[in-house]
Design brief:
The structure is a single chain. The chain is of the alpha+beta class. It folds into 2 domains: 1-66 and 167-183, Pseudouridine synthase I, catalytic domain, N-terminal subdomain (Alpha-Beta Plaits, 2-Layer Sandwich); 69-163, Alpha-Beta Plaits (2-Layer Sandwich), CATH 3.30.70.1560. The chain is built from 3 helices and 11 strands. The strands form 2 sheets. Strands 1, 2, 3, 4, 7, 8, 9, 10 and 11 form a 9-stranded mixed beta sheet that branches. Strand 5 (93-94) and strand 6 form a beta hairpin. The longest helix is centred in the middle third of the chain and has 9 residues, at 82-90. Mean pLDDT is 91; it is low at 184-189.
Length: 189
């Protein structure tokens, strides 16, 4: 089984939270036994999270050796320059080593389909913001945020819209749907 979930901002990518105070978890949205996240999104990130009951499929989706593309929309602080885009396309050096080249392009405006975030992103009148679409083939901790910061564009909001062939589409925040792939992980060899 494979599920697509639109993870809201502030929700943990796990079914339990042992922190104090406790934070919202997947259990508040998904009541299907024995499914687990195939990958993660940090607490501040939103968008597509895949869940499965198939460990081999989860491995195929998340293991860096398989280089599944992951596409994000990032609202960044600053003006996106061609130099910054070229750096992202070439790969940037982070404290844990260089990244693989990414696909990167600036968006002309905030996507019309995008839902408002709760809580809203902070805005500063004196600092412009812009949107960038970034596709990476790795899955390091907070990688997109660290990549945009490395080129002088701190991320204000981050939304994953695609993992491999699976897209967020028009899934509302907090909603999920079953994905019928017709394949099990053993068929992906």
């Amino acid at each position: 089984m494979l599920l697509a979930f639109n993870k809201p901002h502030g929700v943990l990518c796990q079914f339990t939270d042992h922190g104090t105070p406790s934070r919202p978890t997947l259990a508040e949205y998904i009541d299907i036994p024995a499914v687990y996240p195939a990958g993660r999104l940090d607490l501040d990130s939103e968008g597509l999270l895949l869940l499965t009951d198939d460990g081999a499929l989860a491995h195929r989706l998340t293991d860096p050796r398989h280089k599944q593309p992951k596409t994000y929309l990032a609202q960044v602080e600053g003006v996106i320059s061609e130099v910054a885009l070229a750096q992202l396309r070439h790969g940037v050096t982070l404290n844990d080593g260089p990244t693989l080249p990414a696909q990167a392009c600036a968006l002309d405006a905030t996507p019309a389909w995008l839902w408002p975030r709760d809580p809203p992103v902070r805005f500063r009148k004196s600092v412009p913001d812009a949107w960038i679409e970034l596709t990476i083939h790795e899955g390091r901790n907070r990688q997109v945020r660290r990549m945009t910061a490395a080129v002088g564009l701190p991320t204000l909001r981050l939304i994953r819209v695609r993992v491999g062939e699976h897209e967020l589409d028009e899934l509302a925040p907090g909603a999920w749907r079953r994905i019928h792939t017709g394949l099990r992980s053993r068929d992906w060899a």
